[in-house]
Structure formats: structure tokens, C-alpha cells
Design goal:
Elements lengths: L1 H12 L2 E3 H24 L1 H5 L13 H16 L3 H14 L11 H11 L11 H4 L8 E3 L1 H22 L3 H4 L3 H5 L11 H4 L2 H21 L3 H21 L3 H9 L44 H23 L3 H6 L7 H20 L17 E8 L5 E3 L15 H11 L6 H18 L6 E10 L10 H6 L3 E10 L2 E5 L7
Antiparallel strand pairs: 1-2, 3-4, 3-5, 5-6, 6-7
Length: 499
């Protein structure tokens, strides 16, 4: 198998592609990461402080985060690109790979892609390195990098996620998209006009599932690739519109960029070519020289090493997929369980694969994680004039407020609150969010009171017309208070699961 993979990789490696696509990806992806780091900077005291602003973290993370922003600026500009990629990967290991309470699923893809950027030829064009001749100008690159970015970014996620969805009753009925878009903790847009179209929702549900299963294989066929890319980007544009996870949606769209064909006006025969040319096929073997950029080991050996590494990653992802309900169900009731054996084999390297390569199980948008999620928690500040100001965690409809995007969305909805509320986590979260918001808004914690409200909601088992508007209209009930006096917090709250 290694020999077959070696031959396929050699074909992809010697197949030339314009370097501009990879360079554009570098710029777009770098800007997305800057947005992620910017959010971490804004919420740094909520993320890192034991109690925001009152009990500070042992390390002041702001200088390090600002250095990371500078590193990403260098990556975007293509200045000292290789060094910037090394520092970027180091920073991602210290943050994305270690986040628990404030982690979310795209972090694994960030780690994987940041690892690939250590090796990929991303600064040959559209970079200050090439402009000032700090590195050799490289107008075309191997096509293998486009496929590696796609698979490490979203390809493996699609396949693994589909295996979990196939065993999910909601997805089996075709209601997966409708279900995920109808739950108040999941969304920040009301698209009831589309959600009420039963046929559209069921078609979309099955189409998403079919796309995740098929496109990672069809991406290798040229005639199908572009329509598939456009469908995939349209799906993720929908994710951006509906769900408060912009980093996930934008990054997923960015991972398609290296696969996009260059428009004709960028080709070398055009006066608008910007000096970016498409490499003639007869010069493709020259690409093998790129294998020797870092050492004097023969290119054929590096290709075999690359083949072995990719095979290891595929095997690691397959071992994750063997834990899916779909494949477990195929094993039946046999005493010998492949999934159990795989779990034992995978256990010693799971930590390394997860933290350094972003190889994990992709159990996302599954109905079982919302079983019992029948409550929305909100906070309001009791202002001196007697009125109440909603904290931007949730809106009055119960959807996510502007605080709740990305990792803050995941922290509030799946850590502080969740389908089965952990009272200790909830109390700590109420303390931290009120302390953070109050300090950001120049409200003294010497004497401040916040109202805790709860909205009861339902979790549907199948499609229902006007389900979302009905949930939005459910009343709020006051269930407790958060008191701050002399910077000491008291939370008066009954056991939420008993309400």
C-alpha cells in the first residue's frame, strides 16, 4: 500500500499548479487567524483569569498574543514567511491545542493546517519575501499541497462526521440541517421562512450528508471538482449566516482556495497576469527539486517518507472513525470488536495526534448532544434607574448575542450551560461572565446585581412547522440572582435541572 501511495503522491507532486492559489490561501487564512487571535485578546481575562480582572492569570498573555498578531501579519504579507510559520505553529500548540473550556472544533483544523504551513511553499509569489528576493521566486508549485490542505482542513472532517451522522436518527430522516438550525442555543439568525419549507429542508439534509460522503473522493476528478467546491463553499456560507461560528465557516471556505482554478485573466498570456504563469507540463519534473529544500536526502526518499506520514494520518483518522456508531453497528454482536481493538491501538498516540496534528473524531451537529437541552440561561444587569440591561450573551428571543461567537459561543452553550447542566460550572460561569462584562462596561463590582433568567424550550424529534418562532415566544422566568459586593460574588440559584 505504501508503494501505491508513493506513486500517487509522486504523480500529484509532479503535477504543476500556479503558486498564486497557495499564496492567496496564505493571505486569507492568515487574516482569519488574526480574527481568532483578536477575539482571544478581547476576551483574554475571561479565558485566562481564574476570576476575570479580580484574580489575574499568573502570566500576562497580552504581549504574547500581540507578538502572535505580528507573526500572522508577517504570514499574510509573506515576510520572513518560513520563520513566521514556525512561530505560528508554536503559538497554536500553546493555545488551540490546549484549550478545553474555550476550545471549539475548528481548533483541530487550525493545528493541522499550521503544521502543513511549516513545509508548504507559500511565499513564492504575492509575498514580500519574493519581492525583496529574500526567497527564490516560485511561480508554480506542486498540486499535492492543495489536496493536503483540503483533507487536513475539511476532507477528513467530512468523512468522519458523515459516519457519525449516518447513525443519527435525525440525519437518517433528512432533518439534520433543519434540526441544527432550529435550536436557539445554536443560532443567531431566524430563518423560519426556509425552515418551514419541509421539502427544501429534507433535500438539504440529505444533500449535506451525501456531499460529506462523496466529495472527498470526487475531488480528484477535474470535471466534478469545481461544481463540488462551489457547493461546499455555499454550504459553509450558510453556516456563516446561521451559526455563530465565523472562524469555522470562513476557514472551511478558505481550505478550498488552493483547489480553485485560476481565471483566464491571470494566466501568462494575459496583460493582467501579474507575472504569474501556469507551468508547462514538460517542466513538471523540476518540482522534484523542491523536495530537497531542507536537506540533501534524495527526493525519492522524501517522497516515501511523505507517503508514510500521510498513511499514518489516514490510519489515525480511520481509527477515530472506527469509534463511530455507524461502524460499531456494522460489527453486530460479535465478541471480537474491531472498534475496541482500534481504541486500544490508538490510545498511546491519541494525545500526540490530537494536539500536534489535529486528528480527532468529528462528532458534530448530532442530535444526541441536544437531548435534554430544554433551557436557555440569560443574564440582565439591574441598572441604578431600576431598568434591566441584557448582557450580550443571549438576545431576548433566546438566540445568541454578539458575545457568543466562536469559542465564547462554545464555552457558554456547551460548558457553562449544556444539555445536562453542571451546577458548579454554571455558578462559576455566571460569576466570570458578570465580572468580565461589568469591568468592560465600567460597572463597579463593589455593588452590582444581575438577574438570572431561564427560558424553557423543546427539542424536536422530527420536522415541525413554525417550531423556531414558538421557541422564541416562550416566556422568560426569573430563577436567581448574582450579587457582587466589595468584589465578592454570591450566586443565589436553585438546582436548574430540577426546574
Amino acid at each position: 500500500m505504501l508503494g501505491w501511495l508513493h506513486q500517487k503522491l509522486r504523480f500529484l507532486y509532479t503535477k504543476p499548479e500556479p503558486a498564486l492559489s497557495l499564496a492567496v490561501f496564505r493571505v486569507v487564512y492568515g487574516l482569519i487567524l488574526m480574527g481568532e487571535v483578536g477575539q482571544i485578546i478581547y476576551f483574554q481575562h475571561l479565558i485566562f483569569d481564574p476570576i476575570p480582572y479580580l484574580n489575574l492569570a499568573e502570566i500576562n498573555y497580552l504581549p504574547l498574543l500581540l507578538i502572535w498578531l505580528l507573526v500572522l501579519a508577517c504570514l499574510v504579507l509573506g515576510l520572513f514567511t518560513r520563520l513566521a510559520a514556525i512561530f505560528n505553529y508554536a503559538f497554536s500548540l500553546a493555545t488551540f491545542a490546549l484549550f478545553t473550556e474555550f476550545g471549539y472544533h475548528i481548533d483541530y483544523a487550525y493545528v493541522a493546517i499550521n503544521f502543513l504551513l511549516l513545509l508548504a511553499p507559500i511565499s513564492g509569489v504575492l509575498s514580500l519575501d519574493a519581492t525583496f528576493k529574500l526567497t527564490a521566486r516560485q511561480e508554480w508549485v506542486s498540486s499535492i499541497w492543495a489536496y493536503l490542505i483540503f483533507f487536513f482542513g475539511v476532507g477528513f472532517t467530512y468523512l468522519d462526521s458523515a459516519l457519525y451522522k449516518l447513525a443519527d436518527p435525525i440525519w437518517q430522516q433528512g432533518w439534520g440541517v433543519w434540526f441544527a438550525s432550529s435550536l436557539l442555543p445554536n443560532i443567531y439568525q431566524d430563518l423560519s421562512y426556509f425552515l418551514n419549507n419541509r421539502a427544501l429542508m429534507q433535500v438539504l439534509g440529505y444533500l449535506v450528508l451525501a456531499f460529506e460522503i462523496l466529495f472527498p473522493f470526487l475531488v480528484f476528478f477535474k470535471k466534478i471538482r469545481l461544481p463540488g467546491i462551489l457547493i461546499g463553499m455555499a454550504f459553509h456560507a450558510g453556516t456563516l449566516l446561521v451559526y455563530p461560528i465565523p472562524g469555522f465557516a470562513l476557514s472551511a471556505m478558505a481550505f478550498y482556495i488552493p483547489l480553485l482554478p485560476l481565471p483566464g485573466w491571470l494566466k501568462s498570456n494575459s496583460k493582467y497576469a501579474f507575472k504569474v504563469s501556469v507551468a508547462p507540463k514538460e517542466t513538471a519534473p523540476v518540482l522534484l527539486r523542491d523536495l530537497n529544500r531542507f536537506c540533501f536526502i534524495p527526493g525519492s526518499f522524501i517522497l516515501k517518507l511523505t507517503s508514510a506520514f500521510i498513511l499514518y494520518c489516514v490510519f489515525g483518522q480511520l481509527l477515530c472513525s472506527l469509534q463511530s456508531d455507524t461502524l460499531k453497528n456494522l460489527e453486530g454482536s460479535n465478541n471480537f470488536k474491531v472498534s475496541k481493538l482500534a481504541a486500544r491501538i490508538f490510545a498511546p498516540v491519541y494525545y500526540v495526534n490530537q494536539k500536534y496534528l489535529g486528528i480527532v473524531a468529528h462528532e458534530i451537529f448530532l442530535a444526541r448532544y441536544f437531548n435534554g437541552y430544554e433551557h436557555i440561561i440569560s443574564l440582565q444587569y439591574q441598572q441604578p434607574d431600576g431598568t434591566q440591561k441584557w448582557l450580550p450573551i443571549t438576545t431576548q428571543t433566546g438566540m445568541n448575542g454578539y458575545y457568543n461567537t466562536g469559542r465564547i459561543f462554545c464555552n457558554w452553550n456547551y460548558w457553562v450551560t449544556s444539555a445536562q447542566i453542571n451546577q458548579e460550572k454554571l455558578v462559576a460561569g455566571l460569576r466570570d461572565y458578570t465580572a468580565f462584562w461589568a469591568t468592560k462596561n465600567n460597572i463597579s463590582l463593589q455593588n452590582a446585581t444581575f438577574t438570572i433568567r431561564l427560558k424553557k424550550t423543546d427539542v424536536p424529534l422530527t420536522w415541525q412547522k413554525d417550531f423556531l418562532p414558538k421557541q422564541m415566544q416562550q416566556p422568560w422566568q426569573e430563577i436567581g440572582l448574582v450579587y457582587w459586593q466589595y468584589e465578592k460574588c454570591t450566586v443565589k440559584l436553585p438546582l436548574v435541572e430540577s426546574l
